[in-house]
Structures are given as structure tokens and as C-alpha cells.
Amino acid sequence: MIILHGFGENLGVKDPSPMVLKVDAYLRMAGINFTNNNHPSNLQKAPKGKLPFIVDDGKTVADSQFIFEYLKTNHVNLDENLSKEESAQAYLLTKSLDENLYFCLVYSRWMCEDTWQIVKKAFFGKLPPIVRSIVPTIVRKKLKRNLEGQGIGKHSHNEIVHITQQSFSALSNLLGEKDYFFGQQPCSFDAAAYGMLASFIETTVDDEFTQMARNYPNLVQYCKRIKTHFYS
Ligand SMILES: N[C@@H](CCC(=O)N[C@@H](CS)C(=O)NCC(=O)O)C(=O)O
């Protein structure tokens, strides 16, 4: 039985990490049996210091991309009905969310002052008072450095809003009236897209970034469709 290690429900979503959500979605869409092991302390056990990771009968696989590859080879390949060209597109589109839109989400949660106050309370509010007064600032500084190193953090606020808007607009145009991005059946990119879109659309956070995503009716419907089919 596969055990998916994540942070656990927060900010109104099953997991505040879009990477954990995307693996959770893949497992559900593929109908693979699994259980969740949810706790922020999983981060200390994570082989690469990041979540998600899975353990399957004693074998540990870390990183959502490697997990997808492992699941495709050893369990169910959600992309088996895609052509070679479509598979390539699904891979590159996934990377666009992982390596670009993801960092806009991190910026919105950790760097925008109003949202940061909500996130700080949600992520660190239960820590003992002294730890609570120190740890959030340290983690926030680390993330600021990461965002600058990645590049997104070098842009102005308005430029990051623009980049985010471009991603939502492209996703909305790509999905159009279809049920899933590549047709009638979900593929690996739908798991990745749902993980990322749910982080903006289904969260209780209400800010400029989440409002932007909620302005695309077909993306909102898409999340609802996946929730109904795979999470009820
Ligand atoms: N490339 C990794 C990225 C995973 C990742 O960035 N996880 C974040 C949460 S979304 C994390 O664990 N961050 C904790 C940290 O960096 O300390 C994947 O796709 O799984």
C-alpha cells in the first residue's frame, strides 16, 4: 500500500502544498489504493527535505515528478492514451506549473503582507510562543532568498501579478470547454493542474492572486468537476 506523506489540511485545502495535492490527485484519478500520512514534521523525514514523498512497500520515492514516473511504471499510467506528442506536451506543461506558477503562489503567500499574516497564523500559530515568534521570520527570509535565486523574486509585485495572470489565461484557453486538458479522461497534467489550481481556487485565502484565478469560470468548474469525481 502506498503512503503519501504531506503536510496535512491547511488554508482550506487538503494540503497547502500543490505538489502534495498533485500526487494525491494522480493517485485518485488512477484509482490506486493509498493512504495519507499528514504532518508538517514529515519534512524532517523527507529524503530531499521537501514534500511530497511516497513509501510503497518499503520503497521511498521523493519529488512529485519522480513519483509520477514511478506510478506510471509500477502502477497505473494516466498518460497511456496520450499520443507521443501529447505526452511531451503534458510533461512540459507540468514543468511550467512546477517551475513558474508555483513560485508565484509562494510569492503571494509568503511575501504579500496581508496574505502572509494569514499564512503565518495557519502554518505556525500552534507552535509554542517563543518558537512562534522566531521561526516564521527565519523561514520567510529563506523563502525570500529562494524566490530571488529562482528569479521570480527579482520582479516587481505588478510583474509577478502579470506573470500569474498569463498562466491562468493560458490554462483557461487551453482547457476551453473540455472536461480535462487532453479530452474526456484525466491525464498526469490534470493532476498537476488540479494541484496548482486548487491551491488558488479552493483555498480560504482571499487575495489578489486567488481572486484572479476565480475569475476564470472554466477553471473554477474544472476544480469542481475533479472534486466531485475524485474526492467525494
Ligand atoms: N520538486 C519538488 C518540489 C517540492 C516542494 O517544493 N515542496 C515544498 C512544499 S510545496 C516543500 O516541501 N518545501 C519545504 C522546504 O523547502 O523547506 C516536487 O515536485 O515534489
Describe what this molecule looks like in 3D.
- The chain is built from ten helices and four strands, in the order βαβαββαααααααα.
- The chain is α+β, with helices and mostly antiparallel strands and 232 residues long.
- It starts with a strand and ends with a helix.
- The structure holds glutathione.
- Glutathione binds next to helix 3.
Count all strands and give the number.
Answer: 4
Termini separation (Å)?
21 Å
The level of helicity is 55-70%
Each distinct ligand: glutathione
Q: Sheet with the most strands?
A: 4 strands, mixed
> Low-confidence segments, ≥5 residues, pLDDT <50?
none
> Tally the helices: what do you get?
10
- What structural class is derived from the secondary structure elements? alpha+beta
Number of domains: 1
- Just name the CATH architecture: Up-down Bundle
Using the coordinates shown, work out and report the CATH topology.
Glutathione S-transferase Yfyf (Class Pi), Chain A, domain 2
β-strand percent reads 5-15%
**CATH level 1 class label:** Mainly Alpha
Query: What is the string of helix and strand elements?
Result: EHEHEEHHHHHHHH
Backbone shape: globular
Describe the structure in brief:
62% of the residues lie in helices and 8% in strands. The chain has 232 residues and is an alpha+beta fold. It has one domain: Glutathione S-transferase Yfyf (Class Pi), Chain A, domain 2.
